[in-house]
Amino acid sequence: MKAFDFFPTPITISDITILPEELEKLMFFYNDQSTWVLNKGKNYASVETDIFRNVLGIKSSLVKQVQTEIDVFCEEIMGEEASLTPTQSWLNFNPTSSKHEKHFHTNSIISGVIYIRTNDKTGNINFHKPFEKFNMIMNKIKTYNKYNFEHVYFTPEPCQLFLFPSFLNHSVNKNESEVTRISLAFNTFYSGSFGEVDKLNMVDNLT
Fold first, then answer.
1. Domain annotation covers residue 198
2. Which of 35, 39, 47, 200 is the most exposed, having the fewest neighbouring CB atoms within 10 Å of its CB?
3. Residue 52 and residue 126: Cα distance in Å, rounded?
4. What is the pTM of this model?
5. Element (H, E) at 197
6. Nearest residue to 10 (alpha-carbon basis) of 158, 130, 144, 133
7. CATH assignment at residue 116
8. Would you say the C-alpha torsion 32, 38, 43, 48 has a positive or negative sign?
9. Which domain holds residue 160?
10. For 183-202, what is each residue's pLDDT tens digit?
Protein backbone atom coordinates (compact mmCIF):
# COMPACT_ATOMS: atom_id res chain seq x y z
CA MET A 1 0.00 0.00 0.00
CA LYS A 2 1.27 3.48 -0.88
CA ALA A 3 0.19 6.42 1.28
CA PHE A 4 -0.01 9.99 -0.02
CA ASP A 5 0.34 12.97 2.31
CA PHE A 6 -2.09 15.65 1.18
CA PHE A 7 -3.39 18.86 2.80
CA PRO A 8 -0.61 19.49 5.33
CA THR A 9 -1.04 22.22 7.94
CA PRO A 10 2.02 24.49 8.02
CA ILE A 11 3.67 25.82 11.18
CA THR A 12 6.85 27.84 10.70
CA ILE A 13 9.50 28.83 13.24
CA SER A 14 11.98 31.64 12.59
CA ASP A 15 14.71 33.22 14.67
CA ILE A 16 14.37 36.98 15.02
CA THR A 17 16.24 39.80 16.71
CA ILE A 18 14.69 42.05 19.35
CA LEU A 19 16.71 45.23 19.77
CA PRO A 20 17.40 46.49 23.32
CA GLU A 21 15.25 49.59 22.80
CA GLU A 22 12.37 47.43 21.53
CA LEU A 23 12.69 45.06 24.48
CA GLU A 24 12.60 48.02 26.86
CA LYS A 25 9.32 49.21 25.36
CA LEU A 26 7.78 45.74 25.65
CA MET A 27 9.00 45.14 29.19
CA PHE A 28 7.35 48.38 30.30
CA PHE A 29 4.04 46.50 30.19
CA TYR A 30 5.44 43.61 32.21
CA ASN A 31 6.74 45.97 34.87
CA ASP A 32 3.42 47.82 35.14
CA GLN A 33 0.76 45.24 35.99
CA SER A 34 -1.95 47.90 35.80
CA THR A 35 -1.63 47.39 32.03
CA TRP A 36 -2.68 43.73 32.33
CA VAL A 37 -6.17 42.29 31.88
CA LEU A 38 -7.19 38.82 33.08
CA ASN A 39 -7.75 36.28 30.33
CA LYS A 40 -9.01 32.70 30.32
CA GLY A 41 -6.70 30.15 31.92
CA LYS A 42 -5.57 32.62 34.59
CA ASN A 43 -3.14 34.20 32.17
CA TYR A 44 -3.06 37.90 31.34
CA ALA A 45 -3.00 40.03 28.20
CA SER A 46 -1.98 43.63 27.70
CA VAL A 47 -4.68 46.27 27.63
CA GLU A 48 -2.87 47.64 24.57
CA THR A 49 -4.01 45.59 21.58
CA ASP A 50 -1.95 47.27 18.86
CA ILE A 51 1.61 46.84 20.09
CA PHE A 52 3.12 46.94 16.60
CA ARG A 53 1.68 50.33 15.68
CA ASN A 54 1.21 52.13 18.98
CA VAL A 55 4.28 50.93 20.89
CA LEU A 56 6.98 49.72 18.50
CA GLY A 57 5.98 51.55 15.33
CA ILE A 58 5.53 49.94 11.92
CA LYS A 59 9.04 51.02 10.88
CA SER A 60 10.70 49.29 13.82
CA SER A 61 13.17 46.48 13.18
CA LEU A 62 11.00 43.87 14.87
CA VAL A 63 7.86 44.73 12.90
CA LYS A 64 9.83 44.72 9.65
CA GLN A 65 11.19 41.26 10.44
CA VAL A 66 7.69 40.00 11.16
CA GLN A 67 6.39 41.43 7.89
CA THR A 68 9.22 39.74 5.98
CA GLU A 69 8.36 36.35 7.49
CA ILE A 70 4.66 36.88 6.71
CA ASP A 71 5.53 37.68 3.09
CA VAL A 72 7.61 34.50 2.81
CA PHE A 73 4.75 32.45 4.30
CA CYS A 74 2.33 33.94 1.74
CA GLU A 75 4.63 33.32 -1.20
CA GLU A 76 6.25 29.98 -0.41
CA ILE A 77 3.50 28.22 1.55
CA MET A 78 0.19 29.79 0.56
CA GLY A 79 1.40 30.39 -2.99
CA GLU A 80 -0.43 33.70 -3.15
CA GLU A 81 0.36 37.08 -4.58
CA ALA A 82 -1.20 38.50 -1.47
CA SER A 83 -0.46 41.31 0.90
CA LEU A 84 -1.09 40.19 4.47
CA THR A 85 -0.33 42.69 7.19
CA PRO A 86 -0.62 42.49 10.99
CA THR A 87 -3.89 43.69 12.47
CA GLN A 88 -4.11 43.47 16.26
CA SER A 89 -1.04 42.64 18.34
CA TRP A 90 -0.88 42.15 22.11
CA LEU A 91 1.34 40.87 24.89
CA ASN A 92 0.61 37.71 26.89
CA PHE A 93 1.82 37.19 30.46
CA ASN A 94 1.73 33.72 32.00
CA PRO A 95 2.70 33.75 35.69
CA THR A 96 3.36 30.55 37.60
CA SER A 97 0.54 27.94 37.24
CA SER A 98 -1.23 29.85 34.44
CA LYS A 99 -1.92 28.44 30.99
CA HIS A 100 -3.72 29.19 27.73
CA GLU A 101 -6.87 27.21 26.99
CA LYS A 102 -7.32 25.71 23.54
CA HIS A 103 -8.52 28.34 21.07
CA PHE A 104 -8.20 29.70 17.53
CA HIS A 105 -8.22 33.23 16.11
CA THR A 106 -11.17 34.58 14.13
CA ASN A 107 -11.07 37.35 11.50
CA SER A 108 -7.47 36.48 10.70
CA ILE A 109 -5.60 34.55 7.99
CA ILE A 110 -2.23 33.83 9.62
CA SER A 111 -1.56 34.25 13.33
CA GLY A 112 1.80 34.50 15.00
CA VAL A 113 3.54 34.61 18.33
CA ILE A 114 6.93 36.02 19.28
CA TYR A 115 8.55 34.66 22.42
CA ILE A 116 10.19 37.25 24.64
CA ARG A 117 10.79 35.40 27.89
CA THR A 118 10.42 31.66 28.25
CA ASN A 119 12.25 28.52 29.32
CA ASP A 120 11.69 24.77 29.17
CA LYS A 121 9.25 24.87 32.12
CA THR A 122 7.14 27.93 31.30
CA GLY A 123 4.80 25.91 29.08
CA ASN A 124 4.93 24.21 25.68
CA ILE A 125 2.76 25.47 22.86
CA ASN A 126 0.45 22.77 21.52
CA PHE A 127 -1.11 22.70 18.06
CA HIS A 128 -4.21 20.52 17.79
CA LYS A 129 -5.31 18.50 14.81
CA PRO A 130 -8.22 20.27 13.04
CA PHE A 131 -10.18 17.00 13.15
CA GLU A 132 -8.95 15.56 16.39
CA LYS A 133 -9.97 12.00 15.63
CA PHE A 134 -9.16 10.18 12.42
CA ASN A 135 -12.81 9.17 12.49
CA MET A 136 -15.73 9.47 14.90
CA ILE A 137 -15.29 6.00 16.42
CA MET A 138 -13.26 5.83 19.61
CA ASN A 139 -10.73 3.04 19.55
CA LYS A 140 -7.48 2.17 21.28
CA ILE A 141 -4.48 3.32 19.29
CA LYS A 142 -1.71 0.74 19.25
CA THR A 143 0.96 2.84 17.55
CA TYR A 144 0.92 6.60 17.08
CA ASN A 145 1.99 8.02 13.73
CA LYS A 146 1.63 11.24 11.73
CA TYR A 147 -1.87 10.24 10.62
CA ASN A 148 -3.49 9.53 13.99
CA PHE A 149 -1.83 11.80 16.55
CA GLU A 150 -4.05 14.53 17.96
CA HIS A 151 -1.60 17.31 18.74
CA VAL A 152 2.02 18.33 18.38
CA TYR A 153 3.96 20.50 20.80
CA PHE A 154 7.00 22.77 20.75
CA THR A 155 9.10 24.14 23.57
CA PRO A 156 9.63 27.74 22.43
CA GLU A 157 12.80 29.71 22.99
CA PRO A 158 13.26 33.47 23.35
CA CYS A 159 13.41 35.37 20.05
CA GLN A 160 11.51 32.73 18.11
CA LEU A 161 8.60 33.61 15.83
CA PHE A 162 5.88 31.03 15.16
CA LEU A 163 3.46 31.49 12.23
CA PHE A 164 0.44 29.27 11.63
CA PRO A 165 -3.03 29.36 10.02
CA SER A 166 -5.44 31.21 12.27
CA PHE A 167 -8.00 28.39 12.15
CA LEU A 168 -5.58 26.05 13.90
CA ASN A 169 -6.47 25.36 17.52
CA HIS A 170 -3.58 25.90 19.92
CA SER A 171 -2.99 25.96 23.65
CA VAL A 172 -0.21 26.49 26.18
CA ASN A 173 0.61 24.16 29.05
CA LYS A 174 0.71 25.28 32.66
CA ASN A 175 3.71 27.37 33.63
CA GLU A 176 5.64 25.19 36.07
CA SER A 177 8.44 27.67 36.69
CA GLU A 178 8.85 30.77 38.83
CA VAL A 179 9.39 32.87 35.70
CA THR A 180 6.53 34.75 34.05
CA ARG A 181 6.28 33.70 30.43
CA ILE A 182 6.05 36.68 28.05
CA SER A 183 4.99 36.49 24.43
CA LEU A 184 3.71 38.86 21.75
CA ALA A 185 0.83 37.55 19.64
CA PHE A 186 -0.71 39.01 16.50
CA ASN A 187 -3.21 38.40 13.72
CA THR A 188 -3.13 39.31 10.04
CA PHE A 189 -5.51 40.13 7.22
CA TYR A 190 -5.37 41.16 3.58
CA SER A 191 -4.66 44.76 2.73
CA GLY A 192 -5.56 46.56 -0.48
CA SER A 193 -7.48 44.66 -3.15
CA PHE A 194 -7.66 40.93 -3.75
CA GLY A 195 -9.70 38.53 -5.82
CA GLU A 196 -10.69 38.76 -9.49
CA VAL A 197 -13.41 40.90 -11.07
CA ASP A 198 -14.44 38.29 -13.65
CA LYS A 199 -14.86 35.64 -10.94
CA LEU A 200 -17.10 37.99 -8.91
CA ASN A 201 -14.91 37.68 -5.82
CA MET A 202 -13.08 41.01 -5.92
CA VAL A 203 -12.63 42.86 -2.64
CA ASP A 204 -11.17 46.33 -2.98
CA ASN A 205 -12.44 48.28 0.00
CA LEU A 206 -9.73 47.28 2.49
CA THR A 207 -7.35 49.88 3.85
1. no
2. 200
3. 25
4. 0.91
5. none
6. 130
7. 2.60.120.620
8. negative
9. 12-190
10. 999 999 998 777 788 877 88
